[in-house]
Design goal:
five-stranded mixed β-barrel; alpha+beta; DNA-binding; single chain; 779 residues
DNA sequence: TTAGGATTTG
């Protein structure tokens, strides 16, 4: 406790000084005396403003008067306070306070002749192990006025709803999101931490430090942190925390009832009963107000196409190439799928050879990329890790019969992707260690006993899985939604017939394209039948930025059907943003029912608004109305779906055409309705795939254009919903199980139509699947 | 300085 504020109750302090300290007389403050375990006490008669030295260190000069030597010629002495202590003292010190200093260094005072004070001065700093006690009378300082206990910590903590731009504060918070420290592009490690507290306000902090150890030791969402001297700034209209000089943190397990042991790199920190209470209160609050169920999984529970956090032990590591690095880890459980082995040179593989061999069926290879490589390289074999947001991917190599699962830690830090080292004292590391010690390696090497795995909870043993596969071989995995009365036509007959015609066929899916299913999502115009790629965010960003150049026309603000709000961003760019909230019955509706139009926002701000409001339409001003932006950008955003219009078929109308929908009894703000009002031909999200179908007579390629009917997954949601991508992958694995011989593939029942495509050069017949859906028990 | 939460497509 380097600086402590003590309140005097009835003339007495309730916290006596440590018993080993003895008071030193002013006259004994001379060079050559031993001042260890001594303290000097005086009354503050003068306190200079806090300043900074040339090297940026905070500095405070205080003059103390010795009340025991009031009659002496020299009865005052200069105290020079450096660093954090100077800053802390400056905050709470008042003239008239009693000031106790211990652990000081004594030096000749260069100003003694001029100021007539003691020939020496005392130098104190936290680094020197000094301690300062400030005794104050009730009502004389701001801190003591609010203190309700006899010992008030010197630190004042600001709740997250009271943060002000440009201040340096102390605060507590529960971790809602974090990126484990990673090597930034500058000189430091960086960690991003989002906190929340009972005021329900969030604060995202960006923390830098050249020393990994100085960043908060956060291991999971729900951990509780105490930050000292964090700087608050406004960024993009929101408060942001950033490390300032002297930043320090403590981190605590967020579990109610767990021991309160601060994790910190700093040797000196204050922590008192009052603060224990704060932690316990935050734990209780978080338990009922914060969802902390992370995407954790054991290797036994992994699925293709998922992102998860893995707590594991490092068994081996190897360099792969410049941008990737291999980690071999295990968690004692077995992955239910064959896992890939990254080929590396034996001499590049670090780790105990015997152990690597023993655990070969239990370790998985995780390939980490780009910014994670330096940290991965530095990991020690045997250490316990938590790897955040590992991606599992299903793939099959050309020479493999069955597909395998790959584990990737992609580059970047989205969603907290990264690697954290757990100390052995960490409860999760302890639990894992105990579990790993209990694993019977002999059993794990017996593949038979390990193969009765629980595939996504559907099959409890291998015979269930087999019978499911058999079912797939007997009953078709796709069914017709119409035309059941038709007979099947063999593929040879189909291929040899004239187009256009329609057929019912029974065939096997030998292969399909694209293999990367996300690549099958396109935008389709049902009017001109054109297909186009889904634009990426960069195009949108470019258009949004371009539109921000047009100033909002104030004459278009606040009409009969919308209210307008304009503000200027606090950042250097001083951008003006205007939002028009569409009203209903002259009233604003609940945000979740509200359509708004935005001018001058950034892509990020647009996305943020879609989280809260039903519809967002980016617009810009003209002389007499608002208009949509270029149609390469979405004209409408709902939730995380972006709606686009066909450039060729749309004739955009002024935005006031929307007022008719706003006037409806219950505006539903359906995209089709909005598009129609705005003269937009809505592009529909569709999955486009090419199926190579075979039967005993022949083969043909048939196209599938599916909005939702075939896979029973809305195509519009595939790109933004990982679960749906996973579901689609599983369906494809049933329709076309990787690594199977043709005989073992399941049957598909499809309805197809043939059609002619002619151009000047050639004539071709194409086939398209329709009126077909994946069987109910396959989805 | 760095990053400024909001998955890659190796």
């Amino acid at each position: 406790m380097p600086v402590q504020l003590v309140k005097i109750i009835k003339g007495k302090s309730e916290t006596p000084l440590p018993s080993h300290l003895q008071e030193e007389d002013l006259n004994h403050l001379q060079e050559g005396f031993d001042h260890t375990n001594k303290y000097f006490q005086g009354v503050v008669i003068l306190s200079y403003p806090l300043t900074k030295l040339g090297d940026g260190t905070d500095f405070l000069k205080v003059v103390l008067q010795d009340l025991n030597n009031l009659c002496s010629r020299v009865n005052s002495i200069n105290i020079l306070i450096y660093g954090k202590m100077a800053e802390d003292c400056a905050k709470i010190l008042r003239q008239g306070d009693t000031f106790v200093v211990a652990g000081f260094k004594l030096a000749k005072s260069p100003t003694a002749r001029v100021d007539g004070r003691h020939s020496c001065h005392l130098e104190v700093s936290e680094e020197a192990g000094s301690a300062i006690y400030i005794y104050t009378k009730p009502g004389t300082t701001a801190a003591s006025e609010t203190a309700s206990v006899s010992v008030a910590p010197k630190y004042v903590y600001t709740s997250l709803n009271h943060l002000k731009d440009g201040t340096i504060v102390n605060l507590y918070g529960v971790v809602k999101f974090f990126k484990p420290p990673y090597v930034s592009k500058g000189t430091d490690y960086c960690s991003v931490v989002t906190l929340v507290d009972p005021s329900n306000v969030k604060l995202t902090c960006t923390l830098f430090n050249g020393n990994l150890d100085s960043l908060p030791k956060i291991y999971k969402v729900g951990d509780i942190v105490r930050f000292h001297r964090i700087k608050i700034r406004e960024y993009n209209g929101q408060m942001q925390g950033i490390t300032s000089a002297g930043f320090a943190s403590l981190t605590f397990d967020g579990t109610v009832g767990a021991p309160i042991v601060p994790r910190t790199s700093s040797k000196v920190y204050t922590f008192m009963n009052e603060e224990q209470k704060t932690i316990e209160e935050l734990r209780v609050w978080a338990a009922s107000n914060l969802s902390i169920s992370g995407p954790a999984a054991k290797l036994s529970g992994v699925q293709p196409m998922m992102f998860f956090d893995l707590t594991c032990q490092l068994v081996g590591k190897a360099k792969v190439d410049g941008s990737s690095f291999l980690l071999k880890v295990w968690d004692g459980t077995k992955c239910p799928y064959p896992t890939w082995k990254v080929p590396v040179e034996a001499r590049d593989l670090e780790g105990e050879k015997v152990l690597l061999h023993q655990l070969r069926n239990l370790t998985v290879d995780i390939l980490v990329y780009d910014n994670h490589v330096p940290l991965a390289k530095s990991l020690k074999i045997g250490s316990f890790l938590r790897i955040y947001s590992i991606h599992t991917k299903q793939a099959n190599a050309d020479n493999e019969e069955v597909s395998h699962i790959e584990f990737h830690l992609h580059g970047g830090t989205c969603y907290g992707r990264g690697i954290g080292v757990l100390p052995e004292s960490n409860p999760d590391a302890k639990e894992l260690k105990a579990f790993l010690e209990s694993v019977d390696l002999a059993e794990s090497q017996d593949m038979e006993s390990m193969s009765s795995v629980d595939l996504d909870g559907t099959f409890s043993n291998i015979s269930d899985l087999e019978s499911h596969l058999q079912r797939c071989q007997q009953l078709p995995v796709t069914v017709l939604t119409d035309h059941q009365d038709l007979n099947n036509t063999e593929l040879k007959t189909v291929v040899n017939s004239m187009a256009p015609q329609q057929y019912r066929i029974r065939a096997k899916l030998r292969t399909y394209k694209p293999q990367k299913l996300y690549q099958s999502v396109k935008l389709h115009c049902s009017k001109c039948n054109s297909l186009q790629e889904v634009p990426d965010g960069d195009d949108f960003d470019f258009i949004v930025q371009g539109s921000a150049v047009t100033a909002s026309n104030p004459e278009l603000h606040n009409t009969s059907w919308y209210d307008s709000v304009t503000w200027t961003t606090q950042d250097q760019k001083q951008r003006k943003i205007t939002i028009h909230f569409v009203k209903h019955d002259e009233m604003l509706q609940q945000p979740e029912d509200t359509l708004l139009m935005i001018e001058g926002g950034t892509l990020k701000e647009v996305y943020k608004l879609t989280k809260r409001f039903k519809c967002v339409i980016p617009v810009r001003s003209t002389e007499d109305d608002l208009e949509l932006l270029d149609l390469s950008a979405p004209f409408l955003l709902q939730g995380n779906i972006k709606y686009y219009g066909c450039k060729q078929c749309s004739t955009p109308k002024p935005v006031k055409s929307l007022s008719s929908i706003a006037a409806e009894q219950r505006p539903s703000w359906e995209p089709t309705e909005i598009a129609q009002a705005l003269g937009i031909e809505l592009l529909q999200y569709a999955l486009i795939m090419k199926f190579t179908l075979v039967d005993r007579t022949g083969a043909l390629n048939a196209y599938l254009l599916d909005y939702e009917k075939f896979f029973q997954i809305p195509a519009s949601e595939i790109l933004t919903n990982n679960f749906l991508q996973q579901k689609m992958q599983m369906t494809m694995n049933t329709l076309c199980p990787p690594g199977r011989k043709l005989d073992d593939l399941p049957w598909l029942e499809c309805f197809i139509k043939s059609y002619n495509v002619r151009d000047e050069m050639k004539h071709q017949v194409y086939y398209q699947i329709f009126d077909t859906t994946v069987a109910e028990d396959v989805v």
